[in-house]
Amino acid sequence: MSETAAAADLANTIYLTLPSGRVTIVLRPDLAPKTCAQIKTLTGQGFYNGCEFFRVIAGFMAQTGDPSNTGTGGSPLPNVPAEFTTKASFLTGALGMARTNDPNSGNSQFFICFAPATFLDDKYTLFGQVTEGMEFVDQIKKGQGQSGRVTDPTKIIKMELAA
């Protein structure tokens, strides 16, 4: 790999530190450039540090990115328009932008899939992939019932840009 390619890879890599270990996430600006830019901006500001995985459904996904930890909050940045794709699928370790019923309401909340969730394809913005540390994602405390609300949730210790 050339130095330029390595630098580009690091520019689109995020380290997510959980209590159980470090997770490496590779962003996909080829699929969702605006969403990746928003995530990188928020990560660089330390926005995600201390956020809880407040909604976690076993066998499906873990959601975070709301500093109020209620599922109703976001960042002060404007919402990002939907960037749906048919070029990739929501497989194990995929990251997607959470949203309301309005497809253009993604802001700061995102989820990580525990298992394939291809029913989300072309309905949610897929913007990244866990490439290392999925075993630590699997250790995120699961919620109860269909709401997935978690008591004593797992917190993000630190989320940082690799470059």
UniProtKB/TrEMBL annotation:
SUPFAM superfamilies: Cyclophilin-like (SSF50891). It holds the Pfam family Pro_isomerase. It is an enzyme of class 5 (isomerase). It catalyses: [protein]-peptidylproline (omega=180) = [protein]-peptidylproline (omega=0). Residues 19-163 form the PPIase cyclophilin-type domain. Its EC number is 5.2.1.8. GO terms for molecular function: peptidyl-prolyl cis-trans isomerase activity. PROSITE patterns: CSA_PPIASE_2. Keywords: Isomerase, Rotamase. It comes from the Bacteria. Belongs to the cyclophilin-type PPIase family. PPIases accelerate the folding of proteins. It catalyzes the cis-trans isomerization of proline imidic peptide bonds in oligopeptides. This is Peptidyl-prolyl cis-trans isomerase. It comes from Acidiphilium rubrum. The lineage of its organism: Bacteria, Pseudomonadati, Pseudomonadota, Alphaproteobacteria, Acetobacterales.
